[in-house]
Amino acid sequence: MSETASNGSVWPISTWLSVGSLTCGSFALVSSELLPMAVLTPMATDLGITEGAAGQAVTLTAIFAGIAAPTVALIIGRLDRKLINLMLCALVVASNVAVALTSDYLVLLAARTLLGIAIGGFFALAGATVVPLVTMEDMGKGMSIVFMGLSAGLVVAPATSTLIGEAFGWRAAFMAAAGAGLLALLLQAICLPSVPATSATSLSSLFRLLKRRHVRVGLVVGLLFFGGEVCGFTFMRPYLETNGGLDATAIAPVLLVLGLASLLGSAIAGVFADRVLRDGFATTFLMLGVATIGLLTLSASYVALLAFAAAWGIAIGAGPVMTQTWMGRAAPDQLEGVGGLFLAVIQFGITLGAIAGGIAVDSFGTSAPLYVTATCAVLAAVTIATQRAPDGASALALDPAE
């Protein structure tokens, strides 16, 4: 094990490199997950399928990520977590190469299933991999850096993949994603130290986690956050077009500001997660609620609209870091198990958010999903504000009523 950072200390370069290699992994995973959205039309045409069928490549990935999240930790036992991360990066490479080379729709779906397993496994084990590198006291900072890769993927991948697809074809875009996965694999092979498992996760231990109040609270607010955020973001463009009267030229800066702000949110969230977890967590949700209400007030100036989009982005960038840190502090002795439950809830929330958004749009119009987002955000803020933040030490006592 490489030298670890202590609370308030300056990390050695080895720690920065090891955590940075995980950031590259999260970037490769998220970029690969979103890639079909950027090349949907040419991919569907080339494979001779409908765009709806091609879109299931994203849906299937999300489903298997949710399934893999709580189960990967159950089957890997005490294998070195570095080895597991390298295997997951290899799955990313194999999945993208297979999609790039195939002309068979079923092979494409099978390859995307492998990617779902990689996503579920990586993010479920992220907390348990980061904490031995940086200590529990710096978990928020460590997760903040790892999740910057996720935010960067959300911002960079769709536009870059579209450009590559237009210039060289959709298959080249998947080969580029395979290259990103290979780079992450090489960096982790070189920079990531051995991360021995402290314990093996069992099915009974997962169920016991649900007896801890702070774990249950984290799962509930995670469901509210991710479900509400996806509900609003999925239908953001139609809302701005229909209710705001904005064209594509005016909408593009709004979405760009939102995406860049999410990077900032991921970058700064770790400081607040480590120092004022409960207040920072509640403020994140409150910011999302206020920003969403602001976006619903389209009588405001375009500059104000950009400001609300920036606040929205900061909140959605900070949210995953805050939630992961809360869950880790709630169960420091079961980081892999609680990480699996956390990611399963994320995928369930994404699915519910997309379904709720579609129903809301069809029933009440394009502004309805944003009202759902604001409501979920306020409920999450109130829930967290009424709780005592987990401090890790009390959780180690394994008191179900903590």
From TrEMBL:
Keywords in UniProt for this one?
Answer: Cell membrane, Membrane, Transmembrane, Transmembrane helix
| The keyword Membrane is annotated on this UniProt entry | yes
Span-the-membrane segments of this chain are 53-76, 83-103, 109-133, 145-164, 170-195, 215-236, 248-273, 285-318, 338-361, 368-386
Instruction: Name the membrane topology term.
Output: Multi-pass membrane protein
What protein am I looking at?
DHA1 family purine ribonucleoside efflux pump-like MFS transporter
What Pfam families does UniProt report for this protein, alphabetically? MFS_1 (PF07690)
Task: Specify the superkingdom.
Answer: Bacteria
Compartment list? Cell membrane
Q: Give the classification, highest ranks.
A: Bacteria, Pseudomonadati, Pseudomonadota, Alphaproteobacteria, Hyphomicrobiales
Keyword Repeat attached: no
Q: In this protein, which residues make up the domain named Major facilitator superfamily (MFS) profile?
A: 13-392
